[in-house]
Amino acid sequence: MTAGDHMRSRWEQAWTWMPALTACALPLHPRLSVITLIIWGVMAILGWSIRIPSQNSNSKQGLNWGSMGPVLYFVGLAVGMAWTEQMEVGWFALEVKSTLVILPVLFWLQVRWSSNGKWVPRAIQSFLFGLGVYMLWRFAHAAVQLDPALWRYDGLAGPFHPSYIAAYLTMGMFLMPAKSRLRIPFLVVAALFVGLLVSKAGWLVAILVLGAMLVSCRIRSARWDGIVLLSAGMLFIGAILGDQGRMQEFMRYATQSSLLGLDDVEAEHGLFQDSLSMTEAVPQLKKRRVGSSGGRMQAWRASWDLLKDHPEGVGTGDVVQELVRVYEAQDSDYALLKRMNPHSAYWQALVTLGWLGGVLLLLWWGGLMRESWKRKSWNLAVFGAIIMSHGFFESILELQQGVVAWVFLGLLFVQQARADDETFTASVSQ
What pLDDT score does 358 carry? Predict the structure, then answer.
């Protein structure tokens, strides 16, 4: 074996571990995944330099809805720079979202240069391992510090947004193999953890996934899975222990908004245009406490007003600036104080690029669901349901911890679906 052959052999061994390295880093720390992507990129450059041949006869296999969707969305954001005023903010947004392009390229190279698909299940196992380490770390940290605040919400979430890590844990619960000895403790602890994170979006996603797991079990064995039911109970217990009034605040805001007739758009618009008349008509409105749930509704209302005024979008860098202007006009104190973004991936796309942004986002996420139907992939279907429902309540593509994780997992499950489909087709043809 020549020195060049020896180098290629070592490179190929390391290359198969690149997705697993990133998958493990995703739930450990938001910045850690960036480091692994740099390593992955350096390995790709090294692969080009030593002229690694294609190991896959179908080099287009890595090109699909899951990879082209994020690229098209990024192109739309780049085009949105043409009519943005806050250029520095716009360039920073593109930098944060650069993995919308980087990850599809890396996955395409991974498929092209890998002789087999073993790296896919290895990456899923690494993701589950990372989630387990994360939960142990956060619970141990809370126990050592003896601070009650570290047992719930952002204190428990640590470096992550509570809603984001709740969605990662929920996906991990679904991915845990049924025959694994760690399935019971993982599901029970993860469900309790999600409950304590006190993210209403996280709760919703967890309920949807646990429901899907129950249905799947019922179809396969005609009986309910007791472990899934126990996990649902732990989710409920965690939510009660960690809530501390957040759900009551949401219900109170929603009920009062309904009593004020906010469903009537014209009345709402007239009411909030004149803060003086608002105070005279409903003085208790100024006195009531508005928390994160009320602030989210304020952000949605402002986003709708911006979309009506700017059907083409406000541009990639002007979203928060324009929303702040609307918050001031509508006297939305909480959203103004927090300088809230739209708090919904759909509203974020619509406010940024107008109706075009909504179409691009639906093409991407709808493409994932189409691929899951085409390949009959349950994992990809559940992932698509998670990202589409979670995106309704959070701007999941605004922070790097969201962009990297959701694009990476989407590409991973698309590749898993294609590999499983090819294996099934090959077994039938024999």
Answer: 94
Q: What is the pLDDT of residue 424?
A: 47
> CA 247, CA 252: separation in Å to the nearest integer?
8
Place of tokens 């992939």: 377
What pLDDT shows up at residue 51?
A: 72
**With 80 as the cut, is the pLDDT of residue 330 above it?**
yes
CB 231 within 8 A of CB 173: yes
Its pTM stands at 0.86
Burial letters 121-140, b for 16+ CB under 10 A, else e = ebbbbbbbbbbbebbeebbe
**What are 78-87's pLDDT values in tens digits?**
999 999 999 9
Produce one character per residue of 366-387: b if its CB has 16 or more CB atoms within 10 Å, e if not: ebbbbbbeebebebbbbbbbbb
Query: Which residues, other chains included, contact 199 with Cβ-Cβ below 8 Å and sequence gap of 6+?
Result: 162, 163, 166
Q: What does the pLDDT read at residue 389?
A: 92
The residue to which tokens 């005609």 are assigned: 222
Question: Which pLDDT value is given to residue 214?
Answer: 87
228 in Cβ contact with 237 (< 8 Å): no
How many residues are listed for the chain in this entry?
A: 430
- Report CA dihedral (117, 118, 123, 128) to the nearest 10 degrees: 130
Nearest Cα to Cα of residue 125 among 235, 23, 263: 23
pLDDT at 222 over 60: no
Over residues 358-364, the mean pLDDT reads: 94
Q: Write 155-162 long-range contacts (CB < 8 A, 24+).
A: 156/193, 156/196, 156/197, 156/242, 157/197, 159/29, 159/30, 159/31, 160/27, 160/30, 160/401, 161/394, 161/399, 161/401, 161/402, 162/197, 162/198, 162/199, 162/202
User: Where are the chain's structural domains?
Assistant: 153-243
